[in-house]
Amino acid sequence: MTFTLGVDIGTFESKGVIVDDAGRIIAAASRPHEMLVPRPGWAEHRAEEDWWGDFVHIVRELLNNSQVKPEEIAAIATSAIGPCMLPVDHQGRPLTNGVLYGVDTRASVEIADITERLGADAILARGGNALTSQSVGPKILWLRKNRPDVWKKTSKIMTSTTYLTYRLTGEMVIDHYTAANYSPLYDIAQQDWRDDLGWICPRRMLPRLLWSTEIAGLVTAEAAAETGLAEGIPVTCGTIDAAAEAVSVGVRQPGDLMLMYGSTVFVILIADHRLTDPRLWHAPWLFPGQFSAMAGLATSGTLTHWFRDELARDLDQQTAFAVLAGEAATSPPGAKGLIVLPHFSGERTPIHDPLAKGAIFGLNLTHGRGDLYRATLEGIACATRAITDTYAEAGQPVLRVRAVGGGTKNAIWLKATSDLTGLDQTLCEVTSGAAYGDAFLARLAIGGAPAADIDVWNPAARIVDAAHEPAYDRLYPLYRRLYAQTKDIAAALEDEGRCASS
After folding, report:
1. Homologous superfamily in CATH for domain 3-243
2. N or C terminus of the chain: which is more exposed, having fewer CB within 10 Å?
3. Which DSSP string do the residues of 406-418 spell out, in sequence order?
4. pLDDT single digits (tens) 431-443
5. Domain 252-432+468-502 adopts which CATH fold?
6. DSSP 34
7. How many CA atoms lie within 13 A of 1 on its CB side?
8. What is the pTM of this model?
9. How many other C-beta atoms lie within 10 A of the C-beta of residue 215?
């Protein structure tokens, strides 16, 4: 029997699993870390400590806690938060912290500048994506303009999985799915880097392109010494955590949608054609000839953590979410007329507004904490419905929803999302997430299983049925109007915030 190893680096926690060739988890490990917010609108990780450090710690724990010998591991696959921007020098050493995905909104000026210079229609046509806070190209330009001292030393621009693979194998690679988020540097039709945007980033500074299940290289002697792995194990190119999580629950054919309840809600829909809609993100899927369209909120699970830490300080942190859920259960759907805009870090799809602000609207003296918490969960669910509505408008119907992530433990959040979107949600037996998907991708990479076998590895466990809730018929249109009518005020408050911090 042989085994595969999957490790995923998340926003707040990293996880790893060793899996046998029948999909059984032999060992699992995790390690928490922080997301750094050095300024409002910024979000960072430390590449050495949070990405590689977590990987080493988890692999050593997995090997120590299992009976698996290092030489019995047939292949390794990694995933991580993405798309990220990490400048490294000619020796592959990080020059700054890793700048995170769409939750980092520092490059709004560069988004506007690039869009004006190239034209929004041309960017969408060639790159497949409008420029948003999710795009890495503007963040690279931000680095070039604002940190010329760092730019002078920069040899390559990596993402999180690129860095992990480099530390394991010495190879600098990136998968097509991640690269498509480097807009406008990736040509979606040619599936290659562009050569004409050296004023943003020369092509030579970008990693080599591969498909997610292609072997990038073999574990080096140096990496083996650090991790306890055997030298020479094949390592795949890797991918973004959300994509690996989608794989883990059987999202693999057109109309399949993954709804990930994590620090942010992230959504992946497999499409039978390329969706060209500026409100969505588009990328080749993990395998040649397949397409995907993505969407995501800026704050979701992160917002529930904020609620616990700021509005439930009286509760024990370990049991606070269970207590809050009990309080929210006493509040009716619609939370007695409360609306929460969950845009506490701006917003990603479909509005792409980095200046959007969070709001709790409709308060009166009858409202309690349970109403506030229910309204927070319903606000996230409303934002999720805005995404599923956008998919329908873009022309790709949702046929099957697979729900994943830590937030699926929250019954009120799950049910509100099904009722607001009108979509049933299926939860699978294995909930290990992206690391489990990585282990399956590693097995695919060495020819150990066909893609359809994931349904055998991880069958459906239960379904959350959608029901018609009249309160949401009234709530959702008001939610949409509240954002539209306060958008200008939110932008003005951004200026106030800058003045206060200067």
Report:
1. ATPase, nucleotide binding domain (3.30.420.40)
2. C
3. GGGG-HHHHHHHH
4. 888 999 999 999 9
5. Nucleotidyltransferase; domain 5 (3.30.420)
6. P
7. 12
8. 0.86
9. 19
